[in-house]
Amino acid sequence: DAGVIQSPRHEVTEMGQEVTLRCKPISGHNSLFWYRQTMMRGLELLIYFNNNVPIDDSGMPEDRFSAKMPNASFSTLKIQPSEPRDSAVYFCASSFTTGGSGNTIYFGEGSWLTVV
Amino acid sequence: AQSVTQLDSQVPVFEEAPVELRCNYSSSVSVYLFWYVQYPNQGLQLLLKYLSGSTLVKGINGFEAEFNKSQTSFHLRKPSVHISDTAEYFCAVSPNSGYSTLTFGKGTMLLVSP
């Protein structure tokens, strides 16, 4: 079975450029998460979608970050303009949520972003 | 809101020795508890989770964890580690109602040497 698929796996970009990270969740899952991992702050939830609707975007750092989920099989996380402090590993994850919680969340392999 | 504290950032251990990775949590509501493992340059993979029932939970790769509500802990154990267990281990919680977002601890790096 295909897991959560992220692209690109690695991206090096110059400060000020636009970065778009892409995610294909596991087929049939109705919840999608974007997490960011850094040495200093660990794993932080950026945004959470349920049935393609953003439920919690309180973790989105600032207006430079935006996320969309136009359909159940695709999501993007965009940073415009990018800054060196955005360098991190960005994980997309998905799960099938049925009213309560405790459902297993499956992670992609991450997109390693370096902004120089 | 929930928070997770992993007391050890790094745990060095020799192969075939037992290991315990500590996790404490804080929450104003009841929670579900998880342990995830991250191998180098990979995503996170679920090791085990506690939802209800027996407080001793068995997971993959010979790991187990025990939920202790009075001490708000969920420590991870393995009786005999292998070199291949070298990885970062994350404890996480989510509220047991509503939406299932995970709050992670900072992680513990398990370093297994021969």
SSE topology:
The complex is a heterodimer of chains A (116) and B (114).
Chain A lengths: L4 E3 L2 E4 L5 E6 L6 E8 L3 E9 L2 E4 L8 E7 L2 E6 L8 E8 L10 E2 L3 E5 L1
Chain B lengths: L1 E4 L4 E5 L4 E3 L2 E4 L3 E8 L5 E7 L5 E3 L5 E5 L4 E6 L8 E9 L7 E2 L3 E6 L1
What does this molecule look like?
The complex is a heterodimer of chains A (116) and B (114). Chain A has 116 residues and is mainly β. Chain A has strands at 5-7, 10-13, 19-24, 31-38, 42-50, 53-56, 65-71, 74-79, 88-95, 106-107, 111-115. In chain A, the strands form two sheets. In chain A, strands 2, 4, 5, 6, 9, 10 and 11 form a seven-stranded mixed β-sheet that branches. In chain A, strands 1-3-8-7 form a four-stranded antiparallel β-sheet, with no helix packed on it. Chain A is globular, with a radius of gyration of 14 Å. Chain B has strands at 2-5, 10-14, 19-21, 24-27, 31-38, 44-50, 56-58, 64-68, 73-78, 87-95, 103-104, 108-113. In chain B, strands 2, 5, 6, 10, 11 and 12 form a six-stranded mixed β-sheet that branches. In chain B, strands 3-9-8-7 form a four-stranded antiparallel β-sheet, with no helix packed on it. Chain B starts with a strand and ends with a strand. The interface between A and B is medium-sized, with 25 and 25 residues.
| Gyration radius over CA of chain A | 14 Å
Low-confidence stretches of chain B: none
Overall helicity of chain A: under 10%
Structure annotation, total helices of chain A: 0
What does the oligomeric state look like here?
Answer: heterodimer
Strand content of chain A: over 45%
Mean pLDDT of chain A: 93
Largest β sheet strand count, sense and barrel closure of chain A: 7 strands, mixed
Largest sheet of chain B: 6 strands, mixed
Number of helices of chain B: 0
Q: Approximately how much beta-strand content do the residues of chain B carry?
A: over 45%
Total E-strand runs of chain A? 11
Order of helices and strands of chain A: EEEEEEEEEEE
